[in-house]
Amino acid sequence: MKLFIFGTLALLLPLAFLKLCYALGTVLVLRRTGGALFVSTSRAKIRAMLEALGPLSPETSFVDLGCGDGRLLRAMYRRFGILGVGYEINPWAYVLARLKNFLAGVPAEIRREDFFAANLKDYDLIFCYLFPDVLKDLAPKLRKEAKEGAVIVSANFPLPGWKPYLVLKEEDPIYFYRKGT
Ligand SMILES: C[S@@+](CC[C@H](N)C(=O)[O-])C[C@H]1O[C@@H](n2cnc3c(N)ncnc32)[C@H](O)[C@@H]1O
């Protein structure tokens, strides 16, 4: 009986600790993320998105705005050899992204910064999976800063005021935009 109790506790305590880290990390940055929680894009969606983007040069400059655990960065590296940049302000997600990149041997850069403070002019390809409240502020920033011809991919929610050149249905919609069209 004692063994059972200790065994259960040994399993549950680390899980509870991880949950607490997640909750704390989320609450700490809630004001800036507008409630955009650390939820990951599914592998099926990532696959569909990469298929739709077609072959890309390893020189493509790529950024994931709010990169979560960094899975998009790893997928871009594995598929196209692209070394992207990820912005992430949730400390929990940031640590996870760094750890997973390290374990996967993917040297993509993760910045623990607010992407609203960054200039997005240098990127050929911009990905985001953010909530409508955040996209409302991001849309004019991209209009101002993104380079002509840059491709912007938004998972699940559309960019207000932008006209997609493609909408893929893979579980939820994935919107593809090109600056200047
Ligand atoms: C829905 S998750 C998407 C994660 C990842 N891009 C993916 O598709 O799996 C959105 C992430 O954006 C981060 N985020 C939201 N606003 C941010 C900001 N202003 N600067 C940096 N990260 C932000 C959140 O912390 C969260 O982890």
From TrEMBL:
One of its GO terms (molecular function) is protein-lysine N-methyltransferase activity. The keyword Transmembrane does not apply. GO terms for biological process: methylation. It holds the Pfam family Methyltransf_11. CDD domains: AdoMet_MTases. Keywords: Methyltransferase, S-adenosyl-L-methionine, Transferase. The keyword Nucleotidyltransferase does not apply. Residues 63-140 form the Methyltransferase type domain. PANTHER family: FI06469P, METHYLTRANSFERASE DOMAIN-CONTAINING PROTEIN. This is Class I SAM-dependent methyltransferase. It comes from Thermodesulfatator atlanticus.
